[in-house]
Design brief:
Aldehyde Oxidoreductase, domain 4, 7-stranded mixed sheet, 5-stranded mixed sheet, globular, alpha+beta, AldOxase/xan_DH_Mopterin-bd_sf, oxidoreductase, Xanthine dehydrogenase family protein molybdopterin-binding subunit
Amino acid sequence: MTAAPLPKTGAARYAGSRVQRVEDARLLTGAGTFVDDVTRPGMLHACFVRSPHPRARIVSIDNSAALALPGVHAVFTAGDLNGDVVEAWYTGTGNQVPDTPRPPLAVSEARFAGDIVALVVADSRYLAEDAAELVDVDYEPLPAVPDYARARTAEALVHDGYAGNLAGELAGAPAETIADAYDGAAHVVSETIWEQAQGAVPMETRGLVAEWSRGSGELTVWAATQAPHEVRMFAARLLGIPEHSVRVITRDVGGGFGQKVVPLREDICVLLAARRLAGAVKWIEDRRENLQSAGTARHEHGEARLAFDDAGTILAASLDHVQDVGAYPTPWPVMTGAATGMIFPGPYRVARGTFSHASVFSSTPGRIAYRGPWAFETLAREVTLDIAARRMAIDPAELRRRNLLRRDEMPYSSPTGMPYDHMDPLETLEQALAVLDYDAFRNEQAAARAQGRYLGVGISCYAEPTAPAFGVYATEGATIRIEPSGKVNVYLAGGSTGNSLETTAVQLAADALGADIADVHTIQGDTAVTPFGAGTGGSRSGSMIAGAVGVTAAELRDKLTKMAAHKLEASEADIELAQSRAAVKGDPEAGVSFAELADIAYFQPYALPPGTSPGLEASARYAATGMGLWACATHVCTCEVDVTTGKVTLLRYVVGEDCGHMINPAVVEGQIAGGVVQGIGGALLEELAYDADGNPVATTFMDYLLPTAAEVPVIEYAHVETAPGPGPGGYKGVGEGGAIGAPPAVVNAVADALAPFGVTITRLPLTPAAIASLIDASLIDQGREPETGGSQ
């Protein structure tokens, strides 16, 4: 879809247009400012001493050799830093929600390979690394819990006090309350789906610079974060100082994907160390540390059960879900685990359903948020739905068509209590199938099979809550100032990590004020000057920024209109604002520029209308309501599988996306594409693998494989805007959907290609070796000769 060009005269409508990203000039020329670009006078550098054992008792730590090295300023252990913590809870969950252990440095035991045992601070990173190697830690290896699926029956405990290594559990209605729906169903399909551990792997690793001023008692933090104000609140609580004594500055951030939503243990250590040393301390994570210790996601399994009548109508849906939360999950993981079960019925017409969820500790890094933390529900449901379609001999597109919700059925309440509204799931399916030309592909597939080639098509549909309206996430503020020059500055909390919040803010503010977009600038990411905001997460930014800018700009519009009417001796009702100018309707020559109005507002207060205050600045907050804004989409993927080698080649990828009206279609498509690529990686390549003892075996990009342009086809889009959201501008979230919908679409495409072999896919990733083994195992079960070497 290509937007109409911007009008050259008259009122510009920027929202909805493919406005070029305002940050591109800076980023593409290498002029961005990331944390590692920050240099402070006398700055010191940090390096962590990490455990080489999956689990071990820390018998003793001898730091004398490290401290003797010239240029080493400190070697901190748990006894030095951990006692300095005043409070260490996260705003998004609050201090009343049950939480799990999260000490800054390991206490008495290292609980995963890579656990932080000591912190070395020196004149340079090189020196700090050398000193870290001199720290002599005496470990006593202990039995680890490497496999979360067996953790409930393991003798060893990751944390004392958590019997059966259970971090927490939640459930919906008891399973027996819907047992009759399964007992009376014509078809019941039950499959256990397994998803491997993955990492967020942002291009820029984690890092921060923390500078403590002893004289003023103030802390300044330069952070790679998705939520500057959360870092500020957390640091103030951590150190027991007022919030106004903490300033957090976030410039450019090279990707977050959930990993940078809240401060993790290393960040906590650096914040504590900075006050101890009374200066600036920098820590930049290297890639090995990132892959080993920055947290994992998606490591989970669940038994999905679907009941159908003879016509393929879904009668009931349930999910028994277990997730690995590692040793130090951040924050309390049971909330997102429960969301997985609650959203499991998806965008379908399901009368009855329930779920159970358990979060289980293991001797691996802690679970973190990652682009759609509840995305397993879509994988489990959509893969099981395709398996059911094959068993019932119904085309998977037709099975979905019979069960997907329609726009005219909204609002609709799912059996687990999800209040769906303002979405059009069936239309996203129809649009995506039309772009693909589904029937033509089926003909092509049949012809290819006759030639001994195996093509497949996979479909994935989902619904997701965006812009959650609870707690810290329910409001967003903005300050807009028209400067004396007439130029516009928009101040927002920020949290942009490549998702174009700068461009979004400029487009929205230009429209809301009637300003020329070239006159609008935005300032984000500095807690000293920006209004409070929750940052990027939960696909909230577009809608919340639109709300904040809208309510704030409305105040300035009223003032500009009143001032212009007074100066032009016209009725306020006859004033139009466009292209940074106020004019009288029907008489475009009778007008005044924003610059002229600003001159009056700041320098000629006597010329203002009676009762009008000087200046042109407004601050306001937008408050969202309800569960959130529901977005939905259908992903359709086609592929070819080489049944000899197991190699998968993706052919086409189509996304039918309903995210409401689009602020910038190019940005929307960029967000979808980024998520899809991550989802493809999760389906085919990526795995944070561990050996049987709990040692990580994927700590470099030689072992942890990421998708490249060679593995990803051109992504095609079918935008659906027939069910805009009820919030500002009809915008809904789009940041997480690509990563949610892609894995099951790819899995289902591969499974469809291998349907002639009777293969059922229930475990990721689909590496060539895994596919070859699946084919061979299925053929052996059927008494046929294997076609690959996969089972040998």
